[in-house]
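Hi,

I'm pasting everything inline rather than attaching a file, because the server keeps stripping attachments. The sequence lines come first, and each chain or strand is labelled.
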Amino acid sequence: MDLQALTYLIVGLSFALYIGIAYWSRASSTGDFYVAGKHVHPVANGMATAADWMSAASFISMAGIIAFIGYDGSVYLMGWTGGYVLLALLLAPYLRKFGKFTVPEFIGERYASNGARVVAVICLIVISFTYVAGQMRGVGIVFSRFLGVDIGIGLLVGMGVVFTYAVAGGMKGVTYTQVAQYCVLIFAYTVPAVFISLQVTGVALPQAAFGAEVVEGGGYLLTKLDQIVTDLGFAAYTDGTKSTVDVFFITLALMVGTAGLPHVLVRFFTVPKVRDARISAGYALLFIAILYTTAPAVGALARLNLTTTIQTGPVFEETANLAYEERPGWFRTWEETGLLAFEDKNDDGRIQYYNDANPEFAERASVHGWQGNELTVDRDIIVLANPEIASLPDWVVALVAAGGIAAALSTAAGLLLVISAAVSHDLLKGVFTRGISERRELLAGRISAAVAILLAGYLGYNPPGFVAEVVALAFGLAASSLFPVILLGILSVRVNKQGAIAGMLTGLAFTLGYILIFKGVFMPPLAENVAENWLFGISPEGIGAVGAMLNFAVTIAVSKMTPAPPEEIRELVERIRVPRS
Amino acid sequence: MSEPSTNGSGYWRDNMRLVGICLAVWFFVSFGCGILLVDFLNRIAIGGFQLGFWFAQQGSMVVFLVITFVYAARMTVLDRRHGVREDDEDGS
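And the predicted assembly:
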């Protein structure tokens, strides 16, 4: 069976599995639809959270991003895992004790205000739609790369599958599908990683191979990598180029943003008990860390592999650069997809891969007849081409395709569900048509999920701006709008609705404004996105942390100037703080 | 049995103390060892790793895991000590 057919078979089987699970666990009540009836085992919830959390970007792009930026990539590793500590310690147990269905519902009841609830719904919808657009795009891209179909068709197939299990199964269907998707994606990620670790270092465990000696020529992997990349004019792998203040704030924004993402928070409403919510956050972190500690190892191993494939000997020695005619098979395969591109600038038939943006090195290189970097590498190739570089059998390549699709679909489904719950439960049931029956609310939930899928598909096909930047926006907004008011609502009995509304709006407006100035999502940017123009040297990726601090300050200050909330609120806060009362 | 709110506030104080310790560790390994002290720690090599780099790309995540599991375990003890454990009521 050829690779194409095998990929269709494995991806098709995974889809059949998801739809089968969704049929078996279809929702019959609003409790099932919003929070899976609160019957999810903490370990299962941990897996579902991990799949919900790890998107196409985590699966396909993260190792590649780290491979090309080295130490600077730590912001994603620490930022996207450290948020779970905040979740487990500060939010998850209390939201579970609150025991209702949605995040805006908590904000609405804690602040005794429909206004606060509506503002929270607006924040949630902006965050989730910016995030889901990136996921749908990811689904389309995975389909087109592995199955050779048009991005639009890939998108339609992905929408169809998500539609089937999210609309029918609701949270219950999505939860158990995500458990299956986690198993597919983690297997698909770790198998090639183990093989490439063995190949380069002789150590099977990627986390250990990361610090081991390489088989060929000896020396530690990271020491050798630092040497090779600096010889070619790149920054040392273990050193960053970002400023310390920027690394600090980006990490903080990603951590706080993670803890404020509604589709992650709502997963902790689905477990039976408060202590299940605490331990479940631990399991989620464990399942995420399996991939997140593997990714930087894969990044370093693949960067070394790629660089030494091109630069086979000492720099500037004439025969040390790979002759284009002798390029390996995987190189040819990925050239066809456009992820690798070679342009022979000095017509010597050999590939020169170096940092020509480094003026000092570029000048030295020109003496040796190098007329610019000749190889363009898409960062996604690090994960996608791994199985071929490691000469793994075809079924592993097919599995990586299924894993990438699983990662994208699971995240998209989780996001679509929180959007639909915010519309049917918070806006319709909670604010505008209060007397609605459970049957009609369930129907409204299904209809809004369907509409959200159509809209997400449209956004995926016509993405507003560059997808990666859009995802940065989602984190910044989650950090600066939702996280502070949820946390203060638990830690303080004094903060009130005036404070919360003012805080959320300030955080949202500040962060959105700052990102739009530099990124210009719907318009041309107003200022050049360079460090000299940034506030305190903080890039738009890290500004959510400042937005969150502003939100905290405004919420507390405005609450102090306005009357204390009513007595019932004090009782509510005291009730959610203890597991049994 | 004592009044739920006083019971709750002693419980809450103990909980917040534990949260404070856990978050101090959380901050130290990530923002401390992984970011602010990274250049200093990078002078120390353990096997093939520079220590600061290891904290940033491996160690902080391992410690995060330990923190969440330790917190969950300690809280289960606190729940019982303060008589607010869930199953003690519904018997499940």
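Residues 1-7 of chain B have pLDDT under 50 and may be disordered.

If the labels don't parse on your end, tell me and I'll reformat.
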